[in-house]
């Protein structure tokens, strides 16, 4: 009988378990964050206090209310500026809340405010997720993927046996 629990395989199993625990922890955090977002709302008032806006937990504008009649005497450009500035203040408050509620993450170097606004670099997100695992798996990672992470968020090399080409065929199907 072949012994499958060699020191190398034990290290791989331990690294895989650690990665799964981290992943499950992040899943729980994201579920909690999603619930907070669904339940949360906030109201922001303009600097001159003549306008308030309500935002839901996703940062979407859900209500707008003018206080007093000042808005009636404002020039269109002035009113537009007031509205835009109040929306910006609300969005800023939302991003601060989401960053605060998100807490720390296994996605080291990824700011949740950047993630929420779409400014996060997808390559950096992938690298922050894969780099610890690649480091723990060492030689196994290299044998499976050809080489370690490039530092630019991309995995160098190709996954053996996977679709690595534009024609949609694996290396085996192309006769390599």
TrEMBL record:
Biased composition (Basic and acidic residues): 166-176
InterPro entries membership: YbaB-like_sf (IPR036894), YbaB/EbfC (IPR004401)
Gene3D superfamilies to which the protein is assigned, alphabetical: Nucleoid-associated protein YbaB-like domain
Location of region: Disordered: 150-176
Protein's UniProt name: YbaB/EbfC family nucleoid-associated protein
Species name: Amycolatopsis pigmentata
Lineage: Bacteria, Bacillati, Actinomycetota, Actinomycetes, Pseudonocardiales
